[in-house]
Amino acid sequence: MNPLISVNISCFDRHSMLKECIESFLSQTFRDFEIIIVDDGSTEDLTFVTVMDPRIKYFRQEHGGMAKGLNLAMEKSVGKYIMPFGSDDLSLPTLLQETFNVLEAN
């Protein structure tokens, strides 16, 4: 079955920030999601994300900018809803549940 929400993150380097960002999603109260990570040609090794959780899908592309990375993430997403998210941002534990509730109600 497909996840209800695809969290799409395009990133360039930011190893430690990306790890914290992903961890903030792994502690969500809403569990039916996937995380699509697009590595936009980083000089750092970001493949560590592949072992953090089975819901994480990792793709690498040549450096092309955030928009190109988010476009690739959208192509790879299978969720009913798409949530673009910054690799340097953190989510509160109820973000996905609250977002899902609003989307389903409207």
Structure overview:
This protein is α/β, with parallel strands linked by helices and 106 residues long. The chain has helices at residues 15-26, 66-76, 95-105; strands spanning 5-11, 33-40, 56-61, 81-84. Strand 1 (5-11), helix 1 (15-26) and strand 2 (33-40) form a beta-alpha-beta unit.
Number of H/I helices:
3
Shape: globular
In the predicted model, the low-confidence regions spanning at least 5 consecutive residues are: none
Number of β-strand runs: 4
Structural class: alpha/beta
By oligomeric state, this entry counts as: single chain
N-to-C order of helices and strands: EHEEHEH
Share of helix among residues?
25-40%
What is the first-to-last residue Cα distance? 23 Å
Strand order of the largest sheet: 3-2-1-4
- Taking Cα atoms only, what radius of gyration do you get, to the nearest Å? 13 Å
The whole-number mean of residue pLDDT values reads 96
Q: What share of residues are in beta strands? A: 15-25%
Largest sheet: 4 strands, parallel
What are the main properties of this structure?
106 residues; alpha/beta; four-stranded parallel beta sheet; globular
What does the secondary structure layout of this molecule look like, with pairings?
Elements: E1 5-11, H1 15-26, E2 33-40, E3 56-61, H2 66-76, E4 81-84, H3 95-105
Parallel strand pairs: 1-2, 1-4, 2-3
In a nutshell, what does this entry contain?
The chain contains 3 helices and 4 strands, in the order βαββαβα. Helix content is 32%, strand content 24%.
